[in-house]
Amino acid sequence: MKYILILIPILLVAVFAYFQLQTPLPENSQTLTPESLSPSEEVANFSASFNIITNGTTRIFTDPKYHNQSDDVYIESSSPNTVRVKKTGIAWNDFFKTLPMKLTKECLTTGTGQTFCTNENQTLRFVLNGIEAPDALDFEIKPNDKLEIIYGN
User: How many angstroms separate the CA atoms of 94 and 115, rounded?
Assistant: First the structure.
């Protein structure tokens, strides 16, 4: 008899739990799965740096038109050569597309309209973390990366 009194509440809890698990979710609810989280949507918080040097002149980015142009990757007025990255999966090219300038593997068009393209006398080069990297624009920005874009001979 004692066992029946103990068994009845346990059975009631088990039956209740079973039916709770069988209740379908509302149609507007979402289930979070690893597949639903894209790596590019993950939050980040790190910095990297860049310099652009044309014919020996280091470009500065103190003009407000360059600052805080994206929520995901941007530069601030207090440190205009430091890239703030707030979302993973951001490539260097993604960052430069947020700025009022144009940059490809062959040409740089500055925010003031000056153009610097590879030709028979001068070259546009990319150096990432001290290593020549012609495809640097395609690389994901990593913490403490240092990109130098150099135009000249």
Answer: 20
